[in-house]
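pasting for the record
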Amino acid sequence: SGTDAAEALVALARRENVTQIIAGKTLRHAPWNPSLSERLLRRSGEIDVLLVHPGDALERLPPRLSGAPQG
């Protein structure tokens, strides 16, 4: 089976001496299947994980990146 994405991200972060991971918060997922953000939090150990709500992230992007109409 393939490597879990959260496990791979945390392993890369540790190799590169990363101290923080910023990820988008999953809004919906099956309750029996932990989301990527939940798996990151469980595996991160000493690495800080900041979860950003998707709506909040889009509001902070410049219009050209957020997909908002430019006028």
